[in-house]
Structure formats: C-alpha cells, structure tokens
Predict the structure.
Amino acid sequence: MSVDGWNTVLVLGGIRSGKSEFAESLVTDAPVVRYVATAPEGDPEDTEWATRLAAHRARRPGSWTTEETTEDPRRLADVLESAEPNETLLVDDLGGWVTVLLDPDHQPADDVATIAELAEAIRGCAARVVLVSPEVGLSLVPTTPLGRAFTDALGAANRAVADACDAVVLVVAGQPVWLKPVATATESTATTTVTAPAATATAPTAAATAPVVASLADTEPTPEVQLPDVLTHTPPAAPTPEPGNAWAAPTMALPMVSTGLVIQPGMELPMPDEYAGPQAVDRLATLDVPGAGLGVLDRVVGFAAATQGTSIPAAWGSVRVLLLHGDHAGGASAGTVAGESARRAAQARAGRGALARLAAESGASLQVVDTPAAAPIEDQPALTPEQVESALRYGWRLAEQAADAGVQLLVLGACGAGTEAAAAAVLAATAGAEPPAVLGRVITESGEIDDAAWMIRCAAVRDALHRTRRSSRGAKDILAELGGGDVAVATGVLLGATARRVPVLLDGPVGLAAGMVSRDLAGQARHWCLLADHGGHPAVRLAADVLGLTPLLDLRLDLGEGANALVALPLLRSVLALSAALPVHPSLAGTDDTDPAADESESTDPSYADPDLTEPDSTEPDFVEPEPAGPGPASTEVDEQPASGWRAG
C-alpha cells in the first residue's frame, strides 16, 4: 500500500460516467505521471472518435508523458513490470486494450493467458497504477458473436484486474462508489497530527512505500567491477527515541488536509541544539590530539553535535543519497547533450558511474527520484502552482520515509539539463544576483568552453526575470516561475528533513537554490544543512554566503552533484569517529604522564589490582593490601599497553 492507502486502483464506470476524469483526479498530485494509452486510433474518417481522443489529450497536463501500447496487447504487462517506483501510471482504458487483444491482426492469441499476465504484472508493479475500464456487465447481452466475445473478455479482464488491485471504485453519474475500499481511501481528514513514524500508512514492501532504485540483482551483471550491494542497502532500524535524544522523531503538529500536508510560509520547525554544538567544540580542546587538532573540521563536530543533541556526536552510520533527475527546457539547457541527464540517472539506477561507485564505497543507499520537467522559463512558468504543491509534498515524504528507515544523513544531489541556469534564476530572484556572475562556464564533452551556450543561458535567465518582474517573490511563486521540479522537490526534502531532525549534506546549485527558497517557508531549514565543498561553482559560493554555510573543503571537485559530497563523506565520518573515541589529555585528566594505568587503578576498588599491570618485586605500595597473599600495586614503569588508550612519549 502507498501512503494514501492504495498502490493500485481500478476505476470502473459506464460510458460518459466520468470515470476517466475521476482517475485523472487521483494522480494530479503525483510529480511523475506516465499516461498509458491503449485505444486504437480507429477509422481516420470517424471524426467523432477522433474528437473524443483529442479531448482526452487536451485534459492531460503538459508534464505528463504518454506511452501507447496499441500495437501489442502484451506490451502493457511489460510496461507495468518495468515501471519505476517513483512513477505513477494511468492506464486508460482496458476496453481499448481488449479491443486490440481481440483484433484479428493479433490472432491466434490466448486471451486468458494474456489477461492473467496483466493481473500478475499489476501485483508485482512497483509504481502506483490507476487503471480505467468500462463496466459493461450491467448492459444487455450483445446479439452478435463479436459483441459477446468482447463483453466476455472485458468482464474476465475486469475481474482479474480487480482481484489484483488494492482498491476498486465504480463511478456512476460522476459519483465514485468504492467497491473494494482501503480504510484510508475513504477517510476525510480535516486536521491531523504527525505524531509517530506510523503517520503514513505502513506497507508490506519497501517498493510500495518509497520510490527506491532498481536492485543490482534485477540488472544485467557488469563484466567490469562487481559492486557491493549498495542500491539494495538496508539501513539499520530506526533508533529508539530516548528522552532528550530523539534523533529523528516527529517534532510537531503540522496542518493537514485531505490532499496532504499544507506547506506554507512561516512554518515553525525545530532548530538544532544550541548548547550541544559549542560544548562539543570546547570538548575537542581537551582531547589528547597532537598538534593543532582538527582545524576547520571542528565545525563538522559542532554541526553533528547540534543536530544529534549531544556533545559527543556519533559518526553517521546510515546515509541515503537522493539524486533528483529533472530537465529544464528552453535556453536554460543550452550546450547540454540531449538525453545525457537521463543516461546519468539510468546509470545510477544500474549501479554504474561515479555516484553509484562512491555510494558503494561509503555504504550509502542511493535513490534516484524523477521530478517534473520544467517548461522554458523565458517564455512561461516552469511549473503550475498545483505541480509546485505536489512536488513540495513529495520531497517532504521522501525525507519522512528516510527518517522512518533510520537514515541519519541525507545527501542531496541532482542531474538534469539546465539546472545551473534555473539555480541562477532563483538566486537572482532571492538574493538580487546578476545572472552572468552566478552562471558557471559551459564545458562541452570534449572539454572546451562553449561561450555561445553560456550567453544563451544568460539571455534565458534575463528574459525570465523580465517576464516575472511584476510577479510575487514568494517562495512558491519563485518555484513555479523559475525553479522547476527538481528545485521544488529539493525544497520539500529540506523542509521534511528539518521537521524530522535529519541533517542534509548539500552539493551543487540545485540544493543551494532550494536552501534559498526554503528560507521563506521555514528559516530553520538552513541550520540543518552542511556544505562540504563549493566545487568552484559561483552560484554555490553566493548561495552559501547568503545562507551562512561555510564550505568545509576547497577541492573544486566537478564529479556531478552528490558525487562531490560522497568524496568528502569518509573524511567527515573519520573526524566524528576520532572525536568520539579519543581520550582526554592526561594533563587535564589529573593523571601522571609516567603511569598510564594510575587513573584506572585509582578509580576502581582499592582491593582490586590487575596482575598483568603489577610488579611482583615492588616494595613500596601506594595502598594497603587487604589480602596478605594478594598481588602488589601497579608498577611505576611504563606498561607496553596503557589502559587509558594512549602511549607515554
């Protein structure tokens, strides 16, 4: 089951009953919708049928993609089996599918077997699926053999699909009646409180609850390198919240309506612990560290301490990488190779490429998230207001699902054409930046600088700012006009992670642009963000300066968003592990530098002395032996393995 109570639903209804419109209303909030058309084109001279098809096409939002299965009825099962978990499929309708199935051009065919294959594909589909089908069982029995064959086949298909779906709804005169309801499918919620990890409906499988990437076991083995099982990495169970240390427990009551969480400006989200961070940094000065210590990396310890609520923070164990994939059309994508971002996303799903390999090395799980494509910002808004709301809630849910899975650190990355120009437009709208100053140079595949493409991007951002010069500069307006789907989803992730006290490691212009937008929605979000490296990108530099995020490193890596952060992650983990494990310096602990075992012997019962740490010939004991036959006190000579964990020099 999904968070709304169902993962697959069959919508039945008679002719002109409103079944298609109702099915479309179920997926309006989904950020990635693929419309699967099954009906044949029909007779070219049948203008009435052509008008019906045109009306269906006109209702679909421009962000939806369309796929047709009219050539081969068995292909519908293949489409369902290959669907990604982050997709939503709308199949309209099974009547057209049965028509093609019975077409003489596809005979001989085993109709029963094909329907069974479809039902099995629905049961195993990882994506959310809405199927539309005519209900003809209430009509008269047709008088022709072909009519009877159609109603029999469609009735059998409806029964098999209804059995395979989580929910079934019958639309009569535009009114939905749930025949196979799920408890949450018919509940109307006015206001609810996020109180526990079970705030979203539980699910039998991970594939149904969260968009997850394809398992390495489901892909062809690569002959190059056998990667660790990174894409099917199972995070440890969420830690049991303890008083004063609820790392990622839900934090507050948030406004909810029947369509989901209400994300609005001025949200009151939690702040990191204001005392734990400074205490952790002060503690570093007391540790037995040679030289000047950790240098600028002491900020990592302070950040981790504040976000974990303890002065001795632990190294992040469970890490999840969210790779947001969404393209920007128009001049923003000038100089990019068509299909390159999709290739990168597919590469990450298959466990190949720099990001997947670095994730494998770090033991991090990798989740590729498709976001709505953005329209050309120089001509029109990037997204509709409805798409912005849906993308924000989707990003919030991604963060919620990570927190419920025990993830302790999110790494936010992106791959998409035009992301740098979109980030520059957001910075210009939120920080008053000049587009040429925050747009990085365009580098071609051959490593050359493409000045012409750079100028096209600058012109696109300039025209977009001119078009929106009288528009509101509210957070959601900026996302709709300039930001696009990836920035909107990233903003939702930052807000959701803040609400669940999960820190986020930013990397690249999309994450920083989301940080700029999130200030108007919840100013607390930036305090849960950490920037490992600016990568030499001017937009990242400026946004980090505005947000008060000082980059920890200056490596100027350019491996792609997300990959740069994963390079730095082992170093950050090592710093946290070292700060937690090192003992206090002996001079501050009040022990004799020549007797490392002294503080252990003095802190225990005087009647105890470890024979391995004593000298039998010692004649001047420091304390009175309770047993005459017992061993003598610890020797003042330096032991080979000091009990305090450090070696006297």
In short: The chain has 22 helices and 14 strands. Confidence is low (pLDDT under 50) at residues 183-260, 593-649. The longest helix spans residues 145-164.
